[in-house]
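pasting for ref
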Amino acid sequence: MSEISDGTATTTSKTFSRETRVATLIDAPPSKVWRLLTDAGNYPTWNSTVVSVDGEIAPGSKITLVSTLDPSRTFKLKVKEFQAPAKLAWGDALGTRTYTITETNDGRSRFEMAEKIGGPIFPLFANKIPSFDASFTRFAADLKAAAEKA
């Protein structure tokens, strides 16, 4: 887990993979952040990077997600990790997005989101995948704003 918590996403690219990360401090308890992250139907109400999330975000379940980054594409994802209220991960054969929530000493939440995509054929299509940096920065800001609402 990186120490950076300013809410600005960064990407590290390698030949066979790419990883994008963002972290931010949220003035709300982990349980509130977790509720937002696991309520599929409400994503579009608080998250400007998501068109829709259909299905139930639960251990081993399958969801479909449409992102504003490419609204013409529907991602079919499996929930790979579900450790309330600390860690959630979903993904497909090419990548996994992991959300980590850590309670700070003063009861706030340190939120981190990381997505690693890649594999042996990654170099063949890497240049066709748009940067996630702006979308990750916006996702973290939207989550922070929604969780900090009274």
